[in-house]
Amino acid sequence: MRWKTLDDMDLAGKRVLVRVDINVPVENGRVTDATRIERIVPTIRDIRAAGGHPILCAHFGRPKGKVVDDLSLRVVVPALEHALGTRVVLIATLDAAEARPAEAEEAGVILLENIRFHPGEATNDETLARRLAGLADIYCNDAFSAAHRAHASTEGVAHHLPSCAGRLMAAELKALEAALGNPRRPVAAVVGGAKVSTKLDLLGNLVGRVDHLIIGGGMANTFLAAQGIDVGKSLCEHEMADTAREIMAKAQTAGCEIILPIDVVVARDFAAGAPHEAVAATECPDDAMILDAGPQSVARVNTTLDGARTLIWNGPLGAFEIAPFDAATNAAAAHAAKLSRAGKLVSVAGGGDTVAALNKAGAADDFTYISTAGGAFLEWMEGKTLPGVAALEG
Questions:
Q1: Cα 134–140–143 angle (5° rounding)?
Q2: pLDDT at position 217
Q3: Which of 98, 119, 148, 198 is deepest in the core (most CB within 10 A)?
């Protein structure tokens, strides 16, 4: 990769515009989960330690180019100050930021008001990009989660300043490069979720790049049905059967093994503790739903992981939100965590349900890298160019 990091920049005495993602959950005027704030701390700390002056640029919610008082970033200032250990001054307008008020100059960190209050942000307006660039000497993008959007603060401004990746962005890119760019082989991928239709690009890209593709969740039902297997009342996109067969054919040509459940856990009701049983994948009763992979399937997945050196994980293997249909996800995740902890597996996971599932399984801390980037993570895995990353390579 050709992008620079903070270590490649002379930060002493320089104003550094840092694009961050602090779009955190808030209830009753208080931040309820400061994880995203905590993850930018190394970047801000290192800029200040090198003599730089951070100017944070961030979005909050979807104000759609208008000033919405309830979406002001002032609500995150206390949490930012606590995490960064310094005074943070919120600048309400770009005009005020350009005037360089004395209060801001004396602050440890400057925070610009919600960048999405500007209609030119989402349209990547050149004028807005130039105004943002005018505030600083260096641009640092530490918001991989927004890198799939060609916005003024994520893509446009990078063309007008010396640019680099922040610590969080660099860690994300390094992890993804290890997973797909130049991975240790064999590479296994776990892809789960409800629908094939939402992950067509992901599946299409992975079959040409991994050695084993483990398919779980509702989308596994679609692949089973595409092979003529009756899946009863299970969630299944029967209209995607031809597409599923095309993906299987492409995988065979590419030398990628697709692994589907060989046994499944079925129930008549989708409810916690519902009566359930494990049956062969070919023996789902007409009046039942497949809600999880069975123990034989988990054993096969774990054997595949034993032989792999790199793992990419996106999506659960079953209806993980409700016990006992979380068993397959929990067991496979625990095994991947064990291998990762022992240094036998490089494991990279991402996507909203994925992070929740791995946390629920108690496995997240032992994975090599957990991405919280959501859409950007998926687009990277789909093989798409991310504008915010490409701009750093220019």
A1: 120
A2: 94
A3: 148
Q: So where are the chain's domains?
A: 6-168, 183-381
What CATH number labels 183-381? Answer: 3.40.50.1260
CA distance 337 to 9: 36
The edge-to-edge listing of strands for the beta sheet with 15-19 is 88-91, 109-112, 53-57, 15-19, 138-141, 163-165
Distance CA 191, CA 294 (A): 16
Among 195, 233, 268, 341, the one annotated catalytic: 195
Q: Which amino acid is at 171?
A: A
* Active-site hit among 268, 352, 360, 383: 352
End-to-end CA distance of the chain, in Å? 11
Tokens for 48, please give them.
Answer: 């200040």
Name the token pair of 65.
Answer: 């180019």
> What's the rounded mean pLDDT across residues 93-106?
86
Helix or strand (DSSP H, E) at 109: strand 109-112
Contacts of 282 (CB under 8 A, 6+ apart): 229, 230
Domains 6-168 and 183-381 in one fold: yes
pTM of the model: 0.88
Which candidate in 108, 134, 232, 375 is catalytic? 375
Give the residue-averaged pLDDT of 358-365: 93
Given 36, 39, 199, 300, which residue is catalytic? 36
Catalytic status, residue 193: no
131 is catalytic: no
* β-pairing verdict for 369-371 and 346-350: parallel
195 is catalytic: yes
**Partner residues linked to 312 by β-bridges:** 189, 348
The pLDDT score that the predictor gives to residue 1 is 56
Pick the CATH number of 6-168 from 3.30.70.270, 3.30.420.40, 3.40.50.1260, 3.40.50.9100: 3.40.50.1260
Packing angle between helix 77-84 and helix 35-49, nearest 10 degrees? Answer: 50
